[in-house]
Design goal:
Elements lengths: L41 E2 L5 E3 L3 H15 L2 H11 L22 H17 L2 H19 L17 H7 L7 H19 L2 H19 L3 H7 L7 H12 L2 H9 L3 H8 L10 H18 L2 H17 L30 H17 L3 H15 L24 E2 L7 H9 L8 E3 L3 E4 L5 E5 L4 E7 L6 E8 L3 E9 L8 E4 L2 E2 L9 E9 L4 E5 L4 E5 L6 E6 L2 E6 L9 E2 L15 E3 L9 E3 L7 E3 L3 E2 L4 E4 L8 E2 L1 E5 L1 H24 L2 E4 L3 H6 L3 E10 L2 E17 L6 E8 L7 E5 L2 E2 L13 E7 L10 E8 L10 E8 L4
Parallel strand pairs: 3-17, 5-9, 18-24
Antiparallel strand pairs: 1-4, 2-6, 4-5, 6-7, 7-8, 8-13, 9-12, 10-11, 10-13, 14-15, 15-16, 15-24, 16-22, 16-23, 18-21, 19-20, 20-22, 25-33, 26-27, 27-32, 28-31, 28-33, 29-30, 29-32
Length: 797
């Protein structure tokens, strides 16, 4: 396959993004409160880092184009209506619809993304958008008292949502949305110098303090059971900006004891918790640690990071299934189509970066690199610049992306930001050292040292990177280059073409090159890359394949794929998938059967290893609009044969049912369904591997009329997707609910059967029965994927 232009070889030249001039930027506002914990590896201002051509620059440019398509007035529409101001704008849809309780969160993300993009590129169009958003929000805040709200209140929903939250009544995460708005205002002030954003933020923080102070501590803690984003983080940021201790007090009111206390004691009690509800709290804990010096906050953050990054994450760096943490010994049950919420990785990388600044550790940057390439970069649709919500790791599934105007999920908001700030972690510095954390083409201006360092690389397509030092005079400092844990041997380091003979460090550390650097010095680093595998945690025969840090995924075609854009984030998540090849071998050195495709540095092909056919492997971040697999079943030949026999038994059971059925409907086949009186609501259908199917979602249902053949002793034989699991649905026959078994998704192949006895007497005297598949309850439910439904004599199903 032709390699995308994004990963073709290139040569980096020192150049600024068009329109960017470092002098155009005001310095970042100084904090009024100094850190109580030394910041060892200081991040660089985004204005001092310029991305070079390549993968990340192209992703940023796609995001840049999307942000410019969006309209501030459409984000502000519901804010204005909330306080009685007129608006002629057409509101956005999805989670920003005027009747959705989370409305307004995307406005905060948009503010942050535009501020980040302005700081990264110098494009004045983003400063104009920030200023327009802030003016509009200020107008709404000024009208809040007249609308019956307390002074300082600012939101797209009424203040009564906070009342409901305080009272423990159902409401969709109002503090979460307010956090996004406040974080956007803080970013607008810090990154663009907008003074009005600071004023609006401080009035809003004052309102938060008044709200929080009126609650008894026990009631406040009870209210934190509802997702509240990073309120402790942003309020700690307001404290740092102002020095006013009331903001620190308010931030600490959002310290969730039910989560913080076990972590502080070194206990992992995360099982079952909503994953992304927790990560922003921990980011806040790092900020509180930095500003107070309280070591307890540090213990909380470090322990949480270790448990999630090193024990609860998939190969791509993402975590969670169905948005929740699960037991670390149960990954085998959680390789599903609802894994790896993209917001989680956005926040885990923020947490990683913050911890690294206080305690530089190569493990942290190894994880950062993993998540950045294999999840964040992989989450963006190259066709439209839009992003994923969940990244399905179920073998054979595919990525589903947001729509431009009718999604606005949480991961759309973080997605706007993800690709605007790629320059924030490539480099860091201490007083006397420059850290090279990531091998991404970029130029950094280290103003305190009067030097510019340019990194030129085609990594990961090539295994070398070159650092060129520029400046008006010599400069003495240590160059600390990450020696990745994945490196297949020692780093090769050459300075001006001469091999470096000092300590290059062990894998999982930093090489330190200390010298007085002359303008024009060049350091070339060779990073030994090789194929390797990582098992799915807790398993021995489910493996991911890496080349260096890059997850290589299988390209499995488009069989049965829909157009991969959705307004509802789970719309396509549960669609059925075809059977996926396995890797079959009894040889210990089987990776030798995975070989590079000529002229394609990151494309590989198995040889005599894949069953029933060999497969092509490419970086997960390059595969879009196609089915894919990250984890592979690694089987002995006898295990493969046993699996094939199990698939054959299922096929035989289906054929036997067809032979004895009194009636049969083929789900998703319009002629068959029409002949059986199909009725349905909120359903989807399609075809995969030659089999048609149907499912219902979000309280939907579908039904058929099946002939009894005059028999009373009947069972319902349902042919469903082998990977269906945790579906919340009921099956009714003439409005009598059958005893529907739970589904574990572990059957081999693509299809499986379930047999449901029809209660005795229910069919007596009836020529036909109505069979209905009904979602059970809430918005996130779905039926099984039904391929066929048969009425068969009891004992024949």
């Amino acid at each position: 396959m032709k390699i995308p232009a994004a990963i073709r070889p290139f040569v980096l030249v020192l150049a600024l993004v068009p329109g960017m001039r470092a002098a155009e930027f005001a310095p970042l506002p100084a904090n009024a409160v100094a850190s109580k914990v030394p910041v060892v590896a200081q991040p660089f201002d985004l204005a001092d880092v310029t991305l070079g051509p390549g993968l990340f620059r192209e992703a940023m440019d796609r995001d840049r184009a999307y942000l410019l398509e969006l309209e501030p007035d459409r984000f502000l529409h519901t804010f204005r209506l909330n306080v009685g101001l007129p608006s002629a704008a057409r509101p956005y849809g999805g989670w920003e619809s005027p009747d959705v309780e989370l409305r307004g969160h995307s406005a905060g993300h948009y503010l942050s993304a535009c501020a980040l993009m302005y700081r990264s590129t110098g494009d004045a169009a983003f400063k104009e958008r920030v200023d327009a958003m802030v003016r509009g929000l200020a107008e709404c805040q000024a009208a809040s008292v007249g609308a019956g709200f307390h002074a300082g209140y600012l939101s797209a929903f009424p203040e009564s949502f906070i009342d409901r939250n305080d009272a423990g009544q159902p409401v969709w995460a109002p503090w979460y949305t307010l956090h996004k708005i406040m974080a956007g205002l803080l970013d607008a002030h810090r990154l663009t110098g907008n003074a009005q954003a600071r004023d609006v933020l401080l009035r809003m923080a004052g309102w938060v303090a008044d709200r929080v102070d009126r609650l008894p501590p026990a009631q406040m803690q009870a209210s934190l059971k509802n997702e509240f984003g990073g309120m402790n983080d942003v309020l700690a940021g307001v404290y740092a900006l102002t020095g006013d201790p009331k903001h620190l007090h308010t931030a600490q009111a959002f310290d969730h004891a039910g989560v913080f206390d076990p972590l502080a004691a070194g206990r992992d009690e995360l099982d079952g918790l909503h994953a992304n509800t927790q990560i922003p709290k921990i980011i806040g804990a790092v900020r509180e640690y930095e500003l107070t010096g309280d070591a307890r906050y540090g213990r909380i953050a470090r322990f949480f990071w270790e448990r999630v990054a090193l024990h609860r994450s998939y190969a791509i760096g993402g975590d969670s299934d169905g948005e929740h943490f699960f037991p670390v010994g149960d990954f085998a049950s959680h390789l599903t189509n609802e894994t790896a919420e993209t917001c989680n990785t956005y926040n885990m990388l923020k947490l990683t970066r913050d911890l690294f600044a206080l305690e530089p550790d190569a493990r942290a940057m190894d994880f950062y690199e993993r998540g950045l390439y294999n999840h964040i970069l992989a989450s963006q649709d190259p066709a439209r610049g839009l992003c994923t919500y969940l990244v399905a790791l179920q073998p054979g599934h595919f990525k589903t992306y947001a729509t431009p105007e009718d999604s606005f999920w949480c991961c759309v908001g973080t997605g706007m930001e993800n690709h605007a700030k790629y320059g924030d972690t490539i480099f860091a510095h201490s007083a006397d050292a420059l850290y090279v954390n990531l091998f991404i083409p970029a130029t950094v201006r280290w103003r305190d040292r009067g030097v510019t360092v340019t990194q030129a690389t085609d990594f990961p397509c090539a295994n070398t990177t070159t650092l060129t030092i520029a400046g008006d005079r010599p400069a003495a400092f240590a160059l600390r280059v990450r020696h990745p844990a994945w490196a297949d041997g020692p780093l090769g380091i050459a300075i001006n073409g001469v091999a470096f003979t000092g300590d290059a460090g062990a894998p999982g550390s930093y090489a330190a090159i200390e010298r007085t650097w002359q303008p024009g010095d060049r350091v070339t680093i060779t990073l030994p890359m090789a194929l390797r595998t990582e098992p799915l945690p807790g398993t021995a025969n489910e493996v991911a394949i890496f080349y260096g840090p890059i997850v290589l995924a299988g390209k499995l075609g488009t069989d049965g794929m829909p157009v991969p854009y959705a307004g509802f984030q789970l719309e396509e998540a549960r669609f059925p998938d075809p059977a996926v090849p396995a890797l079959v071998t009894d040889q210990a050195g089987w990776l030798a059967s995975v070989e590079k495709v000529s002229d394609s540095p990151l494309v590989f092909r198995t040889h005599g290893l894949g069953r029933p056919q060999d497969v092509t492997l490419e970086p997960f971040y390059t595969i879009h609009h196609e089915r894919t697999t990250v984890y592979w079943s690694l089987l002995q030949p006898a295990e493969w044969e046993a699996r094939q026999q199990a698939v054959a038994r299922i096929a035989a059971a289906i054929e036997k049912g067809r032979q004895h059925a009194t009636d049969r409907v083929v789900a998703g086949d319009l002629a068959s369904e029409s002949a059986h009186g199909y009725q349905g609501a909120s359903t989807f259908s399609g075809e995969v591997s030659g089999h048609t199917w149907r499912e219902a979602q979000q309280k939907g249902s579908f039904s058929y009329r099946l002939a009894t053949g005059g028999r009373d002793d009947l069972a319902l034989l349902c042919v469903i997707g082998a990977q269906d699991r945790d579906r919340k649905f009921d099956v009714f026959v003439d409005d009598t609910k059958l005893d529907t078994p739970g589904l574990d998704g572990r059957a081999p192949g693509m299809l499986r059967t379930i047999s449901l006895p029809v209660p005795a007497g229910l069919a007596r005297g009836k020529q036909a029965l109505t069979v209905r598949f009904q979602c059970r309850g809430s918005w996130d439910t779905a039926t099984a994927n039904l391929f066929e439904c048969l009425l068969v004599p009891s004992g024949e199903g």
